Amino acid sequence: MLPRRTLLKSGAALGLSGLVSAPFINRLMAQESHPLAGQKIEMNILGIAGWLPSSLGVQMSPLFAEFAKEKYGYDVSFGFAEAPFSDLFQKAATSLATRSQEYNIIISDSQWLGALARPGWILQLDDIIAKNPNLQLEWYSQTVVDTYMTYPDNSGNRWGLPQEGDTIALFVRKDLLENEEEKSAFQAKYNIPLPQTFEDFEKLTMEDFEKVAEFFTRPDQQLWGTASQYSRVYDFCTCFLYPYMWSQGGEIWNPETGQVEGILNSDINATAMDQYKGLLKYQPQGALNYGIAEIIDVFTQGKVFSAFQWAAVGLGMITDANRDQVMVVPPPMHGKGADAKRVYSMGGQPWVLNAFNDETKMRVAIDFLNWWYLPETTLEFAKRGGNPTDKATLSNPDFDNINPWNRAYKYMLEPGRSRDFWHHPRYSEMLAVQQEGFTSFMTGTTASARQALDYIACQQQQILYDDGSAAERPSDACSAVSL
């Protein structure tokens, strides 16, 4: 087997543009002795329905089957099961609770690591990583390790390996930005230039972005300035509201003590909620129900100038019809001057391994992960539209040009620009309460942001106290708090 560095050099020499059509480099590897040689093994992967990164992972499995046959001498086939984001955890948990091998490899959301690890349903990977040099990668940033691998936070215990990295990006209509009449009209109205380049958007604050969004909000032309996520489904509103809080210094809890009350329900976070709700005036009617799919629809239909969206769905956002009209850039900073900063939510998912796999299926699962992180595999994944997370692939000088969103994705993966939230075993309960409170305020059912935050903080404090993760029970004031 050729050393990783040699393979990476060979992959770069082939050129990324020819990667899919070129013979897959794995075929150069000679067969080696393997305890499963001559066997036929059936494996099953559980992934997220309708989620392109999950489908890319499973679509590439025949390449691993070919690799395993030629290198190890065994035949492997893969079955696939899926469920939407909102149902996948329950589907996995229902099976794993019976110690079933129904799903051998699972594409988990990052926040589920604690809920899957605490009952012993998934395999802790530290020993596996130590025994497999291909899994000892240098990741692009510590954010990758913190988001997709570690539970409890800061413990160094690794339970997952990144399947798909993901950050929030801003998709914008380049054809409108470059229109000379639009540029002149914007300059005349706001006395600042309309941003044109990636570098312009790096410097753009939310205050100036709202001017751009206002400028392109033209209901009479069926055009609006932007679109973002407000839906109560799963974590949709949460992930796109958090950047307003974090970027302005707000916090959501103390993970060391489990304290939420007095931290989440702060003046900073209440102001952030008001600001995020204010962004609705630049969005189409119905934006309160927007999630991932709805934003893809309005953007590809040309109804919005811009959209806050996950980089992982770039293939859905950028089509053959709009490819030359779209630019993908960093989302705006919050604040002014030297104090302005951007801290956005991490997306993406890790691979996790069923702890109840028998010896044969566990060996195949580990072989699969070793193959997944080979340089030529990660480049193939990127070429198909995926977002790798290892430093070697993202540092390749050609990486930024593989997909239109790659540069923005990588920019937001830099330390301090994106962060994940909770990996706690009670994640689903905390999220349900939070989504209820956030969307209650966004829809006007709850009158004030502070009231919604007080409700969420009290409920989450009780959840964590009951779990034994928080030393403090909710305060007496919580007895009078409701939505």
Report on this model:
The chain has 21 helices and 8 strands. Helix 20 packs antiparallel against helix 21. It is globular. 41% of the residues lie in helices and 11% in strands.
Q: What is this structure, in a nutshell?
A:
The protein has 483 residues and is of the alpha/beta class. The chain contains 21 helices and 8 strands.
What key phrases describe this protein's structure?
483 residues; alpha/beta; D-Maltodextrin-Binding Protein, domain 2; 3 domains; eight-stranded mixed beta sheet; 21 helices; 41% helix; globular; disordered N terminus
Helix content: 40-55%
In percent terms, what proportion of residues is strand?
Answer: 5-15%
Number of strands: 8
Main sheet makeup: 8 strands, mixed
* CATH superfamily heading of the largest domain: Periplasmic binding protein-like II
Name the average pLDDT: 94
CATH C-level label of the largest domain: Alpha Beta
**Envelope shape:** globular
Would you list the SSEs in sequence order as H and E? HEHHEHEHHHEHHHHHHHEHEEHHHHEHH
Total domain units: 3
The N- and C-terminal alpha carbons lie at a distance of 61 Å
Poorly predicted runs of 5 or more residues = 1-28
Please give the CATH architecture of the largest domain: 3-Layer(aba) Sandwich
Structural class: alpha/beta
